[in-house]
Write a structure and sequence with these properties.
CATH architecture: 3-Layer(aba) Sandwich
Number of helices: 7
Radius of gyration: 16 Å
Order of helices and strands: EHEHHEHEEEHHEH
Number of domains: 1
Helix content: 25-40%
CATH class: Alpha Beta
Distance between the termini: 12 Å
Strand order of the largest sheet: 2-1-3-6-7
Strand content: 15-25%
CATH superfamily: Flavodoxin domain
Number of strands: 7
Shape: globular
């Protein structure tokens, strides 16, 4: 069954040639071949300020670029988020985007001080993280903490699930065969809409 998919490209460097961009393109091509509808949010191309207070987060009006991204997220029934691991976590620009987009009134609705309704139920997600270290070290020694934080503290927090993950390590030193394997895998995920 065709899906409505939003690709969130979280790499802050818009320059072509980044492996994360190639992975997102492979997913996009596969999804189009699979007959899915697509929208793309390229975080590096958006103009938005960082939130600086709880009042801004809870009551502020999102800028136009964020409102458009929220419309895309609301339209989708599957999200795929691509980002490189920087200093052990997601790049600040992606975190700033998520703080702007995943806010009360859109993603959650507080029903009391410690309870909330999850407004983005009915959507699944895949997170794709690229990094220089081997994926096994990130998963087992570091506990995949940034991936777990995005999964539990942001996506599941607002009702998104199930959430799948792809952790791609040794970027920059991997073999061409390893790169081709992951590009083919992303294309396959796109065709399947997962």
């Amino acid at each position: 069954m065709p899906r409505r998919i939003v690709i969130i490209q979280g790499h802050p460097d818009p320059a072509a040639g980044r492996y994360g961009h190639a992975l997102a393109s492979a997913y996009e091509e596969g999804a189009r071949d699979g007959g899915h509808e697509l929208r793309i949010i390229d975080v590096a191309g958006l103009d938005f300020p960082l939130l600086r207070s709880e009042a801004e987060f809870n009551d502020g009006n999102p800028p136009d670029a964020i409102k458009a991204a929220q419309e895309d997220i609301a339209w989708a029934n599957h999200l795929i988020v691509f980002y490189p691991l920087w200093l052990g976590t997601m790049p600040a620009l992606l975190k700033g985007f998520l703080e702007q987009a995943i806010r009360p009134g859109f993603a959650i609705e507080y029903t009391s001080r410690y309870a909330w309704r999850k407004l983005l139920k009915g959507r699944s997600a895949r997170i794709v993280v690229t990094m220089g270290m081997p994926a096994l070290i990130y998963r087992w020694f570091y506990g995949a903490h940034s991936l777990r934080s995005l999964e539990r503290n942001i996506l599941k927090f607002c009702g998104i699930g199930p959430i799948r993950e792809s952790v791609i390590g040794s970027v920059g030193v991997e073999s061409p065969r390893h790169r081709r394997k992951w590009l083919a895998r992303m294309s396959k995920y796109g065709r399947r809409g997962v």
